[in-house]
Amino acid sequence: MSWAIAIWAGALALAAAALAVTRDSVVHALLLLLGALVALAAAFFALAAPFAGAIQLLIYAGAVVAVFVFVVMTVEAGAAARARERALFAGAWQLPAAVAALALVPMLLRLGGAGAGAPAPAGAAALGRLMFGDWAVVTELLSLLLIAGMIGVRVLRRRQKGGRP
Amino acid sequence: MTGVSVLLAIAAGLFAAGLFGVLARRTILMQLISLEIMLAGPALAFVAAGAHHGMVEGTAMFLIVLALAAAEVALGLAIYLQLRRDAGDGDADAARRLRG
């Protein structure tokens, strides 16, 4: 039952994603991305991983999309920009589509029949014990990655404010 | 096909859709959105496999993908703003001359 709900939500996410990458308006693509991320969160809840679903909603659909919205606000999205985008997309989509299909086929061929059964729950307590126990080094590396990203953004913005061209 | 196989196929489809977007779109913002979709595919695969095998590691890997995506978006958007200031264009072709 839960697998069926997860598959339904996942198919919704896939449809929204396929629409998002083919829109000529950035705002439409962003809204469809938001729909795909929320649908994925629903799939995570159905897969008995409520912590992953909550984090997906908070950070992906919340913070990441909000950051995107801030940047999209600075982009001009008039009819001219959309027509230019549409022309660019219509000119060169066949080769990327072929490459994506070539990447997809081997992944699908590897799928075998796996045993059925209800999704096993992944609780936040067990996750915390793993992330801060056996995988503590991984968590530290993640914090390092995030700090590196933060410093990188800071440096980029400082160069922008400084006089150097 | 059982539940987890269908979900893994959907995850592969998400990855392929994102890959298509990254390759086919020229606007950097659209490429970043496609990159997010590309990362969402493995995230779904990890959580589905974790639920299938009853292992919490799937969700832990999802958290790692999430942190990677967050860092990628922050840096990508900062570079995008920088590039648009320098080249006056949100086009990936403007990044042809990457110099310090």
From TrEMBL, chain A:
Tell me what this protein is called: NADH-quinone oxidoreductase subunit J
Q: Name one Pfam family in it.
A: Oxidored_q3
Which Gene Ontology terms of cellular component type are present? plasma membrane
Q: Kindly state which keywords UniProt assigns to this record, in alphabetical order.
A: Cell membrane, Membrane, NAD, Quinone, Transmembrane, Transmembrane helix
User: Where does the UniProt annotation locate this protein?
Assistant: Cell membrane
Which residues are listed as membrane-spanning? 6-22, 29-51, 57-75, 87-109, 135-156
Spell out the reaction equation it catalyses.
a quinone + NADH + 5 H(+)(in) = a quinol + NAD(+) + 4 H(+)(out)
Asked if Transcription is a keyword of the record, the answer is: no
Return one GO MF term: NADH dehydrogenase (ubiquinone) activity
The way this protein sits in the membrane is described as: Multi-pass membrane protein
Automatic annotation (TrEMBL), chain B:
Question: What GO terms in the biological process aspect are recorded for it?
Answer: ATP synthesis coupled electron transport
Major location category of this protein: membrane
Keywords (A to Z) from UniProt: Cell membrane, Membrane, NAD, Oxidoreductase, Quinone, Translocase, Transmembrane, Transmembrane helix, Transport, Ubiquinone
Tell me what reaction this enzyme catalyses. a quinone + NADH + 5 H(+)(in) = a quinol + NAD(+) + 4 H(+)(out)
**Statement: the UniProt record of this protein carries the keyword RNA-binding:** no
Q: Which GO terms describe its cellular component?
A: NADH dehydrogenase complex; plasma membrane
TM spans (from-to): 6-23, 35-54, 60-81
Q: How does it sit in the membrane?
A: Multi-pass membrane protein
Location within or outside the cell: Cell membrane; Membrane
- What does the subunit comment say? NDH-1 is composed of 14 different subunits. Subunits NuoA, H, J, K, L, M, N constitute the membrane sector of the complex.
Similarity annotation: Belongs to the complex I subunit 4L family.
NCBIfam families (alphabetical): PRK05715.1-2
Protein name stated in the entry: NADH-quinone oxidoreductase subunit K
Taxonomic path: Bacteria, Pseudomonadati, Pseudomonadota, Alphaproteobacteria, Rhodobacterales
What gene is this protein translated from? nuoK
